[in-house]
Design a protein that fits this description.
Blueprint lengths: L11 E4 L6 E4 L4 H13 L2 H15 L10 H16 L2 E7 L6 E7 L4 E3 L6 E3 L5 E4 L4 H6 L1 H4 L4 H12 E5 L4 E3 L5 H9 L3 H12 L3 E9 L6 E7 L1 H4 L1
Antiparallel strand pairs: 1-2, 3-4, 5-10, 6-7, 7-8, 8-9, 10-11
Length: 235
């Protein structure tokens, strides 16, 4: 005798932020939740991110053909989790005034994404423009250079290398994937500090998921404000 089918999974619509494409997803099941918990218990961030990306791929009904940016993954996973285990999560925040620790219920719906209108074209001179793109989690997982970055400045430099797509001059368009790492590094190091800062600003302003919240301290009554930014803050 065959075991009965337990659930008829509901389907929800969500928009992939980077492309604007609407897709349908189901809540994650015990098998996906099990993989997430195993990855969480290993305390290895790479394992957890891989499990999160695989959960998104399993729950979205159609194959995702475009690479998912970091903010795509944050937004999609938070949305899927909200429909899977509850649209609220309880977090603890310290009061700015008395430092009392408050339990605050956070609604996981109506998330916002900052800087979606960020231009990928960065003009570093009157005749040279660099086309950039947001990084993906897959690139974070696969990049040894990023993993070995020990300082913020080194991390920004590696992210610039990773996110450069092409260089546009008055005469030609140069695809970065056709160039060696050595040549790209030489190109960046030949920039002035002001030119480099423009690329660094792009990295610093890549879109991200956020939610503003307010709470009143249960101890002293002070009104506090917080901004949750990225998946780490939500969970």
């Amino acid at each position: 005798m065959a075991l009965p089918k337990l659930n008829s999974n509901p389907s929800y619509e969500v928009t992939i932020p980077s492309t604007g494409k609407k897709v349908y997803f189901r809540p994650f099941l015990v098998k996906e939740q099990k993989n997430l918990l195993i990855a969480l218990e290993t305390q290895d961030r790479k394992d957890l991110l891989r499990a999160i990306v695989k959960t998104i791929e399993a729950c979205v009904e159609e194959k995702i053909t475009s690479p998912l940016t970091t903010y795509d993954v944050d937004y999609l996973f938070t949305t899927i989790r909200a429909k899977s285990v509850g649209e609220q999560t309880e977090l603890v925040f310290q009061c700015d005034n008395c430092e009392h620790k408050n339990k605050v219920v956070v609604e996981l719906d109506k998330l916002q994404i900052a800087n979606l209108d960020l231009s990928n074209m960065v003009a570093i001179s009157d005749t040279i423009t660099v086309k950039m793109r947001p990084p993906t989690y897959e690139e974070f997982l696969g990049s040894e250079s990023l993993a070995k970055s020990t300082t913020q400045s080194q991390l920004v430099f590696e992210l610039i290398l990773l996110c450069m797509e092409s260089v546009h001059t008055e005469e030609e368009l140069i695809s970065i994937q056709d160039e060696t790492r050595e040549d790209i590094v030489h190109f960046i190091e030949s920039m002035t500090a002001a030119q480099y800062e423009k690329l660094a600003n792009y990295i610093g302003n890549v879109p991200y998921v956020y939610k503003d919240l307010e709470f009143v301290c249960s101890e002293c009554g002070t009104e506090n404000k917080r901004t949750l930014q990225g998946m780490d803050d939500f969970f």
